[in-house]
Amino acid sequence: MVYIKSLLFLLVPHFLFAQYTTISNGNWSDPNTWNIGTPPPTWGNYTVTINHAIVMDVSPQGAAWQLLVNSGASLQASSCQSLNAWGNAIWLNHGTISCYTMSTPGRVENYGVLEVDLVGSGYSNSVWINHYGGVWTSQEVRIVNHSVLKNYGEINILGNSTSCHSPSSPQFLFAADSLLNHGAITSGDLELSANTTYFYNADSASIASNGYLDITDGTTMLNRGSISAQGDIYISESSTATIVTNYGPISTNSDLFNYSGVEFYNYGCDCYVDEKGDVIINGSFTNHGLLENHGRVRSSGSIHNYGNIGTTDCGYIGSDGGSGALNNYNSATLFGPLVACVTLNAAPSSTVAPSVIFSCPPLASCFEQTVLLDLIRFDVTKRSAREVNLSWIVNQEEKGTQYFIERSTDGVSWSTLSSRQYKNKQQKYTYIDAAPLAPLSYYRLKTIHPDNISLYSEIKAIEVPYLNVSIYPNPSDSYLTLTSEEELPAPILYNSYGQQVDVPIKKETNNFYIDIRNLPSGLYLLKTIWSKDLIQKL
């Protein structure tokens, strides 16, 4: 047996020799709770360490005072008590803090549970950090001036009335320097208002508003995670340009407004296959600024363009599957090779570039999926249970024409299987895919003409059953049998480090017998290739 030992070093910020340290459960105001027989003052600079369950029956305050709540300890307000500071305080929570308000120009770091009705930091230079594993619940949060909020855990801003506080709208107001989210933030109405310099939503992070979302006043926003709102989304104008760069999904169950002074850059679709810029609007979309779209923008209602919408390479915009209107008003512009699945209503003095493609490609592709004019037919049929035959017939060909067979698992992201060159007057071409993708393979034909114009066939899909393979016994310390309904190539064995392990393998018909008697105990991966990898842990 192989054992792996790991050492985890956890650095926990703490205050050595705190002036006031709890020695038992009790009330904050009770002298018997504290190591020196007197509770902390309500002024000045002092240090406090909480190691027990403490009832906060007063409102602790001071200047640059320091508070540490250790793991397993708690600080619980008896009614509507608050934590306040007017200096550069440092508050670290590894346990539980529950109170009415917290307000400080200093630093607050949460590793545990933070339950605060109102976070109302009107000070400059405050720093709020919710670490991995930290759960912060409030009814209202207002962080303003030159402050920073970093979230790696979970923040819930519920917007509910309590016995101590009735929140106002927006329930989450951030009008400070930087909001950096690497975790999950859920709130009621959310507004990034004046003074918000930078707003970053990281990969796998999420921001969900149960009301409206307002991004305004010169904010620079970079989204790689997901952003959603039940209400309207406003990307608002200001004297300083608001710049939004989006690589992730953004959705609203209502309307989206992109105002003048806003530059909105969206990346995804088949234009940027590694990105996920998909804007879904379950209402109408109104644009007064710039939308440079390299991904998808889909609206179930009308699209009203008073500014500029387009792309420099490719992009898709759609309204209600093509039946919805795109109203291009006076002085508005549609530009670039934008695929527009809309019914266009263009004002006389508006501009629509001839490169804009009015088409509704399958699966909202960002490229035009026009049936080739010289393509008579494109057939995709089963040749056997796991072989697909592709054939196409063309009417006329130009010398230098190239054909590319493309395959996909989802009809959005494509890879090239093979290509065919122009053959004088051949007109009929075939290709056999001997390893189609289970459970569904999508195919299309891409044609590149001598003038470098690319056109696509319609997309065809065909069902492909998974290969029936079994491995037994598992676990085993002697022999392993791999059996399949069809012939497979010899399997390959890997150890837990990803290194290939050579073992004796005997083949009989569709069975493989693998001798693992000389292998040390551990975790191994057995890999055999058909149309996709089959990986079995031993």
UniProtKB/TrEMBL annotation:
Query: What protein name is recorded for this chain?
Result: T9SS type A sorting domain-containing protein
Alphabetical list of Pfam families matching this protein: Por_Secre_tail
Using the record's annotation, list all stretches that form the Secretion system C-terminal sorting domain.
471-529
Q: Which domain of life is it from?
A: Bacteria
Q: Recite the UniProt keywords alphabetically.
A: Signal
Q: Which InterPro entries match?
A: Ig-like_fold, Secre_tail
- Indicate the secretion signal residues: 1-18
Q: Which Gene3D superfamilies would you find in this protein's record? A: Immunoglobulins
TM segment ranges: none
Which species is listed as the source? Aureispira anguillae
